[in-house]
Write a structure and sequence with these properties.
Helix content: 25-40%
Strand content: 15-25%
Structural class: alpha/beta
Largest sheet: 14 strands, parallel
Strand order of the largest sheet: 1-2-3-4-5-6-7-9-11-12-13-14-15-16
Radius of gyration: 25 Å
Length: 498
């Protein structure tokens, strides 16, 4: 039998071919038998030998597995694969365990085998990026200090049942990352309790020791800030980026007293540049946040408001006149604010107008209004009397998940309102500051040249408008803001654990 021509290909050339089989995005390299790099080692013994000896194939891995499939054998297999690139610089590892939840008053009858020790013993000194989702707390807690000397980015999502059942009082907090001298960016969160309540649960934040004084980015997907140890923020000397998930205790007329009773006092975060306030756990609509009452952020350049409806006049929400004025005063005090992101189900026209008038220095407006951008572009129309966003240079639009798309009826963006907005900015006698519009979608048809609002935009290209259409993968669409946020868009693993 003649030898296959592939056997005549030199090992180095074969290795280059293998490398080209990997996804261009390192975070998408999965440890799966049907995709590269693992599938390449199943073709023949020579391919297995060559592939196993190429550290570059294995330095970035995403292992996603259901709880029922976790065993000592799978853990050992993962450890063996990870070991193939143990000394390779700039390692990236994602370990994501799905469907671990059980009820608060029951403990698992079959604890998972110890995957963490198998993976990190001996320590992977070259590991720079790590994402762990629902790895048992008992396993993470057993990891000693000194195991992660090079880690820069850590995304840690803990299982809520672990938080309930782990003996924190006896064993103390997780200390594995407390001496990680290179650590700069951390995302920390946990799953939602079965009963939907957080008041009686232990929290991840105070039970994971971090080198706060050196962190530059912290994304807190934990319960209310009234439960968050305030002294941590006082240690953050270099914090540039902060995301916090607000809850009912953090918003509304009683929020100030809630925070004050929890021991908070005014803290100056002079290095903080970017803040995301996530209101999705704070009730039905966006309400007054106590955040700016307790944090002084004199150098803030970017602000994102992420939540449901936003309406100062909604009778279902307590927005007293004094709180409205206080919030708008706080916004207008952000003198360095250049980037404003509004990710909302809907926003009332008067509320939009007042928010934009309070932020006149904004040059980039990033928006997703699920309710088909209702009244949005009308609020952006430039006029001598309103003078909304006089320095607006770039408008970023997100097109997925609109009401029109969900109901398969109507337009995500009303072309007439869109044209009126463009004419006020780019037409004869317009303000003429707008330079670029960027539209994002996971559906190419939503950005096709035949879409009415796209046709309108293309008409203004000849007048100097830069119109960019960016197609993204469908599974990324719900977290599109992360992919276009310049501070975290190089950290795609975040979407795996949020």
């Amino acid at each position: 039998m003649s030898t296959s021509p592939i056997h005549n290909v030199p090992n180095d050339v074969l290795g280059e071919i293998f490398s080209l089989c990997l996804p261009p995005d390192d975070s998408e390299i999965r440890l799966c038998s049907s995709t590269a790099p693992l599938s390449l080692t199943h073709v023949c013994s020579r391919w297995r030998q060559v592939g196993s000896q190429l550290p570059g194939l294995w330095k970035c891995l995403r292992w996603e597995i259901q709880t029922a499939n976790v065993s000592e054998e799978t853990g050992k297999a993962l450890a063996n694969v990870v070991a193939r690139a143990r000394s390779t610089p700039h390692r990236n590892l994602q370990l994501l365990i799905q469907n671990r939840a059980w009820f608060k008053d029951t403990e698992p009858s079959n604890p998972l085998p110890d995957i963490a020790i198998a993976l990190f013993m001996p320590p992977i000194s070259s590991l720079t990026r790590l994402a762990l989702k629902c790895v048992p707390v008992v396993q993470i807690h057993a990891l000693p200090k000194g195991f992660f000397p090079s880690i820069v980015d850590l995304a840690l999502h803990l299982e809520v049942s672990d938080l309930y059942h782990f003996p924190w009082a006896q064993k103390g907090p997780v200390g594995a990352f407390s001496d990680a001298q290179a650590l700069r960016r951390v995302s920390l969160g946990s799953s939602v309790p079965m009963n939907g309540h957080h008041q009686d649960r232990p929290l991840a934040s105070p039970n994971v020791l971090l080198p706060w004084e050196q962190l530059t980015h912290f994304l807190d997907f934990e319960p209310p800030l009234t439960h968050f140890p305030s002294h941590y923020t006082e240690q953050c000397r270099d914090l540039r980026y902060l995301l916090v998930k607000l809850h009912e205790e953090d918003v509304g007329p009683s929020a100030y007293l809630n925070w004050a009773h929890s021991g908070w006092h005014n803290t100056v975060l002079g290095t903080l540049q970017c803040v995301t306030l996530n209101f999705w756990s704070a009730g039905r609509e966006i309400d007054f946040p106590a955040f700016f009452d307790f944090f002084d952020v004199p150098n803030l350049t970017a602000l994102r408001l992420d939540g449901r409806g936003f309406d100062f006049g909604d009778v279902a929400i307590t927005w007293p006149h004094l709180l409205v004025e206080r919030f708008l005063t706080q916004l207008s005090g952000l003198r360095h604010l250049r980037y404003l992101s509004l990710r909302l189900s809907s926003i009332a026209p008067d509320t939009l107008r007042r928010v934009l008038q309070a932020t006149p220095h904004v040059t980039t407006l990033d928006a997703f209004i699920q309710d088909n951008y209702n009244s949005f572009f009308e609020g952006l129309v430039w006029s001598v009397t309103s003078q909304v966003l006089p320095r607006l240079d770039t408008l970023v639009l997100e097109l997925d998940h609109s009401v029109a798309i969900q109901e398969e009826e109507g337009d995500t963006i009303d072309p007439d309102a869109f044209q009126a907005f463009l004419e006020s900015r780019l037409g004869d006698g317009g303000h003429n500051s707008l330079r670029k519009i960027i539209a994002y979608s996971s559906d190419e048809q939503e950005m096709d040249g035949g879409v009415p609002f796209v046709e309108v935009a293309l008409e203004y290209v000849s007048r100097g408008l830069i119109f960019e259409r960016k197609l993204v993968k469908e599974y990324q669409s719900s977290l599109l803001w992360m992919r276009r946020d310049t501070e975290v868009n190089d950290w795609p693993e975040l979407a795996s654990v949020c």
